[in-house]
Every structure is written in C-alpha cells, then in structure tokens.
Amino acid sequence: MEIWKRWLSLTLSLALTLCLAPAVQAAGEESFAEFLIDGEEIDAPQLPLKLDVYRRNQAGEFHPSARLNYPCQVNRVAGNSSFYIDAKEDGVWLTVDYLTDLNQDEVYELPDGQDKPIYDVVDSTGQLAFVKGEGRQKLSAGERFTLTSRSLAFRGRIATADRSNPGGRTYLSNATWEDSPDPDTILYLITLYREEEDGTVQDMCFYLQLYDEVIRPSDVPADAWYCDAVEYALDKGILSGTGEDTFSPDNPVTRAQLAQILWRLGGAKSAADAGYADVPADAWCYQAVSWCSQADLISGQGPDTFAPNASLTREQLALILYQYAGYAGKRPDSRRDLTIFQDNARISLWAREAMEWAVSLGLVSGYSDNTLRPANGITRAELAAVMQRYGRNILKL
Fold this sequence. Notes:
Low-confidence stretches: 11-19
Largest sheet: 8 strands, mixed
Number of strands: 15
Helix content: 10-25%
Distance between the termini: 52 Å
Radius of gyration: 26 Å
Mean pLDDT: 88
C-alpha cells in the first residue's frame, strides 16, 4: 500500500522549496534535505496530471484500479543534467518511480507494488537499482548524493520495457508499446524520506521530466509528426514559444514573424526605416522588417504597406527562403519541373523559379491529391519542418 498512500498525499498539497537551482517540491513535510538541479535549461510549470494507478490481481498482472487528476508542478530539465540531494539530517533515503504513457493516451501509468514495492532505490554501491528488501542506502547529515539525467533515463527505459513485456515483473495488462520510447515521455517521481524516532516517516516529493536538448512545450506531443522539427527550431533559436509553455503549432505564420526569423538568422542587424506606414518605429517587428526590406528579402504589399499581420503563403515562403539563401551565399542550383502538379498554373509568375527550387530541395512538397496549393497559408508546425530542412541542408546550422 506504500505507493498508493503516497500518491493520495500528492493530490493534497503543492509547495515550493527554497538556490545551483532548487527543484520544485510537489508535496511533503518540512525540508530535511535539499534537492538541487544543475541543468542547461530548467523550468517548473504547473501542468495538469492524469494518472492511472495499477494494482496486481491474483494472477500477478497489473490492472488499472483508480484514476487521479490534479495540477502538478514539474521540474523540466534539458541537456546533460545533474541532481543533488543534500541531506540536512541523518537517515535520509530516496525512491524513484517511473511514470509512463505506453499507450499514448495522455494518461500516465504507475504500478502500485502494494506489499511488494517495485520502485528504484539507491543500493549499497551508490547506484539506482530495483528495491530488494531493506537494501537501500541512507545518507548522513551533510552528505550529498548525485543523480544524473543519463542514469535516470537508463533506468526509465528499463522500467518502460518491463511494463510493456508480458513476461515483465510489472507488466501492465492494457498498455501496449511498439517503438522505443522517447525519454521525455517518462515522468520521474523522486521521493525523499526520513524516519522520525517515533517511527513516523516524513517525505518530500519531486517530479522531473528530462529532455535531450531543449524543453518541449506541452502542446507539442512527443508522437506528433512535427515534434522533432519543433525541437530543432527551438534549439537553434529559429523559432520561439508563444507563451510560458506553448508553441501553438496550428497557428498561422505571418509575414512579420518570418521577417523576425530571418533578421535573427542574419545577425539581428540594424537598418534604416523601410517607410512602411503599417510598421511604425515602435512595432515589435520594426527592425526585422526594415532589415529584410533593405536586404531585398521581403518586399512590401504596396507602395507604403508591408502587411505584417497577413498570413504567409507557401509561395511567399519559397521566394523569401530562396532570396535569403542567395543573400547568405548558400543557394544550391537546383530546379524541379512543376508541371507534374495539377494546380501548377496557379503559381504566381514572381514565385515560380523559387517554387521550382524549393520543391526540388524538399522545402515545399505536394499534397496527396498532387497539388501544391501555392496560396495556402503556413502553420507554425509546418514552418518548423521547413526550417529544419532549410537549416540542416542549406544553411548548415
């Protein structure tokens, strides 16, 4: 019943610990230890958590027994990271639980070992290992124990495989898994304990989510077709999020937003006023639009208008990327015959050469009905995919 009771307690309180960078505590008693994080990128948003607790039946299989829903502050960390547990008092020990989402239904699974605990502990060699009886290492006051993102991810993969394998120790009856899970689909629960003289046990609980290179916003699912492209674009600074924990993959891209991207790629240089009445000097995109206009990368929509908020079309994107590649001296000579597309006559004359180039390099592709739809808009997810290919294959980022 140990895990089950612990999880009930986690739904009741959320607290903040005291600075490396302190981890955000999910629940527990007064601090008898510190949990510090050393990571390349760290945040701790409050996220909604859905959790299915699994319990054994008589045959030893784990079946869902309860669902918990509650807000949860998660310590999210990117890159090679270390986690330090500093004991303030004698007798501190820790456990690690691995919350998985094997069937990708956005509900985490946690097996409750009941009278046979199944979480990891620190063994006598100082390594994470499956709990066996009382074989757990305790810390003395002033002692430090270090976990790494690599060690956690390694143990997390083992736990994931174990839960998906019918012969596994913690096989989950209705959870299926076919592909190797991305480490950032695992939610790690680190619980610190200390036993009082009267036998009562204090605990402190922390959630961790690990990312390879960049923290991925919550509205970009790990199994989304554009996930890798979004991570690339965020990591290279080509695109940024739209909020504290959002990317808004389905939002349309505007002309001003692409101007801002190219301006940053070009070194964020200053430029003279381009003279657009709809881009005043106090506009967020003023410098970007001015520079892109001066560099002949993006032209206006009229004599004195830029239309910064107009949706970017596929053929506009092709032309602008074609012109920026020329500006950067990295434009390969490549063309593709577009007459194979049934709507090729709809491509504007000013964009045709650029579209031939973009299609030949895979920056723009046709749809399943053999159309190019040059006047269609571009979503942020689609732009991330285009910029990933553009950055890797042409700009060599």
